[in-house]
Specification:
Helix content: 40-55%
Enzyme class: transferase
Protein name: acetyl-CoA C-acetyltransferase
Largest sheet: none
Structural class: mainly alpha
Number of strands: 0
EC number: 2.3.1.9
Order of helices and strands: HHHHHH
GO biological process, one term: fatty acid beta-oxidation
Strand content: under 5%
GO molecular function: acetyl-CoA C-acetyltransferase activity
Number of helices: 6
Distance between the termini: 42 Å
Radius of gyration: 19 Å
Length: 125
């Protein structure tokens, strides 16, 4: 939970601004975006800042860091320690999604996001 205080300290955002921290190991940034988008869509606030931090890449399957030995003894629990990058490659291989398809999807996604940002930046008439 200290991460939210680091964000406030380094961003210049006043301490009076509410902040939420997502700790999900992997995909924290994605969950933060989903939370902010939902809040905006529901009318809870007009604008939000979504950030995620992960440290799963600091460990490995053979040396996951400071985790209980009980996790390492359970294959399903141990699989949860696989970093997202390796997980995505495994999923792509399993379902036959080529690197080219992934890159094309990512590019199209970025283009859509950029178009939306540009549209939001234009003055309302």
């Amino acid at each position: 939970m200290l991460m939210k205080y680091f964000v406030l300290s380094f961003s210049g955002i006043p301490e009076t601004v509410p902040i939420s921290c997502v700790n999900r190991q992997c995909s924290s940034g994605l969950q933060a975006v989903i939370n902010i988008a939902g809040g905006i869509r529901n009318g809870c606030y007009d604008i939000g800042l979504a950030c995620g931090v992960e440290s799963m890449s600091l460990g490995s399957a053979t040396n996951p860091g400071d985790v209980s030995s009980r996790i390492m003894d359970n294959s399903k629990a141990r699989d949860c320690l696989i970093p997202m990058g390796i997980t995505s490659e495994n999923v792509a291989e399993r379902f036959g999604v080529s690197r080219e398809k992934q890159d094309a999807f990512a590019f199209a996604s970025q283009q859509k996001a950029n178009a939306k940002i540009i549209k939001m930046d234009q003055p309302k008439t």
